[in-house]
């Protein structure tokens, strides 16, 4: 089933024991976050869990050359998307009378630390390439110049010990029994038009 988290999902209130959403940091405006969290909370049983898992756009041990990254952030800003909104997800859940809201992050290695680091670096590289057609106008470069920028970023990943934080915010009930209903993994099909 395809459904949009920003619209009424086709399930009754309190349907799921566990609701999970991830990686919407570069897709949601602040208002979209409020709408999405409202919908996810609506679907969660009173004794269930809500978990939001996001990539923080705050590279650790970042290279001096962050041209592609800054182009993506600039593009998002022009669309009303604030990548720092993820740091406000905990209060957003608490506003729904969730009392056991926890948050934490791990630093996920980029290109080092074994398979996870390699996969993470590959995902970031592919994301940069996929965003090329919409980021190049923001940066004022052509596709060939952008490819060089992405290659330089890849060399930093190979040489450095950089990482990106993965941020999790969740409501945990300690008497939780995972058995009653179903699981909804929520991914928004929201795809803002990045064309000018």
UniProtKB/TrEMBL annotation:
<dbReference type="GO" id="GO:0008757">
    <property type="term" value="F:S-adenosylmethionine-dependent methyltransferase activity"/>
</dbReference>
<dbReference type="Pfam" id="PF08241">
    <property type="entry name" value="Methyltransf_11"/>
</dbReference>
<protein>
    <recommendedName>
        <fullName>Methyltransferase type 11 domain-containing protein</fullName>
    </recommendedName>
</protein>
<dbReference type="InterPro" id="IPR013216">
    <property type="entry name" value="Methyltransf_11"/>
</dbReference>
<dbReference type="InterPro" id="IPR029063">
    <property type="entry name" value="SAM-dependent_MTases_sf"/>
</dbReference>
<feature type="domain" description="Methyltransferase type 11">
    <location>
        <begin position="4"/>
        <end position="50"/>
    </location>
</feature>
């Amino acid at each position: 089933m395809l459904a949009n988290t920003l619209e009424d999902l086709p399930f009754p209130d309190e349907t799921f024991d566990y609701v999970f959403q991830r990686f919407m940091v570069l897709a949601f405006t602040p208002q979209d976050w409020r709408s999405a969290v409202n919908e996810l909370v609506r679907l969660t049983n009173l004794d269930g869990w809500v978990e939001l898992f996001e990539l923080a756009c705050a590279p650790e041990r970042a290279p001096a050359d962050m041209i592609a990254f800054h182009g993506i952030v600039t593009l998002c800003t022009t669309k009303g998307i604030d990548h720092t909104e993820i740091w406000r997800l905990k209060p957003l859940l608490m506003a729904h009378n969730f009392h056991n809201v926890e948050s934490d992050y791990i630093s996920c290695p980029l290109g080092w630390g074994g398979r996870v680091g390699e996969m993470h670096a590959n995902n970031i590289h592919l994301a940069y390439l996929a965003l090329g057609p919409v980021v190049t106008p923001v940066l004022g470069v052509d596709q060939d110049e952008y490819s060089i920028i992405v290659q330089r970023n890849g060399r930093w990943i190979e040489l450095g010990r950089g990482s990106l934080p993965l941020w999790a915010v969740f409501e945990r009930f300690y008497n939780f029994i995972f058995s009653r209903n179903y699981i909804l993994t929520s991914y928004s099909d929201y795809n803002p038009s990045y064309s000018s």
